[in-house]
Amino acid sequence: CLILFLAARPKPRELIVMCAAGLCLGAYLRLHGNVIQKTLEALSYCGAGALPAVWLMPLIRGRSDLKLLSKLLFPPCFGLLSAFFLSVGVHNATYDRFLYAFDGSLGFQPSFWAGQAVSAAPWIGALTRGLYDALPILLVVAYLLEERRSARQSRDLFFMFVLIGISGAVCFLLFPAVGAYYIFAKSFPYHPPLLSSLSIVPTIIGTAVPRNCMPSLHTAWVIAIFWTARRFSLPWRLTLRGLLIAMLLQTLVYHYLTDMIAAVPFILALYALTRTSLRWSDRLRLGAFGFGVL
Questions:
Q1: How many other C-beta atoms can be found within 10 angstroms of the C-beta atom of residue 235?
Q2: Distance from the Cα of residue 221 to its chain's centroid
Q3: Which candidate in 26, 114, 178, 200 could, as Cys together with 45 as Cys, close a disulfide (CB 3.0–4.6 Å)?
Q4: CA-based nearest residue to 39, from 2, 72, 69, 76
Q5: Are 217 and 188 in contact (CB under 8 A)?
Q6: Which residues lie closer than 8 Å to 20 by C-beta, 6 or more apart?
Q7: pLDDT tens digits, residue range 179-202?
Q8: Can the peptide bond before residue 193 be classed as cis, meaning omega within 30 degrees of 0?
Q9: How far apart are CA 199 and CA 137, in angstroms?
Q10: pLDDT in the model for residue 248
Q11: Alpha helices in the chain (DSSP H)
C-alpha cells in the first residue's frame, strides 16, 4: 500500500495524515522480530495509514481518487481472503513424506541444505527471511514498473499475480503439505531423517500450520517477476533478479525442491492464460497452457 500511495505523488498534507495514522497503528500493535522484520512492519503500518489519507482526499485535496483507493484496498482484501483459504484444512493430513521422499531420491535433502546455508551466519538468515517476507513489495514494484511501460501488460501482470494466489489455494486443498521446516522441526536443519526410518504415508501434525507448500507460490511469483523484468531497464532488472535469487534460498528452507519445480509448469499455464496480447489460436499460447496444465 505504501509504495502504491507514494507512486501517486501525494501532497504534503496527505503524507502527514498517512504518517499520523501509521504511528497510531504502530503504537497500538507495536513492532516485533529483528531489525528487518521491524522495518517491514513499520512500512506496512505506514501503508495502512495511506488508506485514511486517500479516504479523506475530498477534504484534503477537494476531490477523491477512487482508482487509487481501489488499488490500496486490494492488498489487505486479498490478504484477508488468502488467510481464510490458508486456514481451511489446517488440521488435515499432509503429504509431506511423499515430497520428502522425492527430494531424498536426489541423494540429499535440499531443504535441509538450504536451512544450513542460511544458518551459517546470523546476517544471512536475517537477510533471506527479510526478502522472503518482502515479496509483496517486489510484486508492487514490478507492477508499477510495468504500468509505466504499458497499461495493458500491467493488467495482464496484475491478473496473473491474483490467479497465482487463487489457483494455489485450490492446489493446497488437493495436495496439502507444510514443509520439512515444520514437520521435522526437532531435527531441522542439521539432521535430516533417513528415508528408511519413515513410513511414506499421509501425516497428521499437531500444530495449526498452513498447508501451503504444493506448489510453491513464492517460486511462482518470483518466476513471474523474472519474466516481467526482462522489459525493465538494466539497473531495475539486475536489482530485482538479484534480490529474487537470494529470496529463493529462503523459499527452499520452507518448501521442498519438488514443489518449487512444480511451480514452473503452474506459472507457465497461468502466464499463457493471462497473455491477452496473443490469440488463443496462437500455437505458443496454446502450447504453453497445455504443457503447464499437463
A1: 8
A2: 6
A3: 26
A4: 2
A5: no
A6: 49
A7: 999 999 889 999 999 998 888 899
A8: no
A9: 40
A10: 93
A11: 2-7, 12-29, 35-55, 57-60, 66-87, 96-104, 110-118, 122-133, 135-149, 151-174, 180-183, 217-229, 234-254, 257-273, 283-293
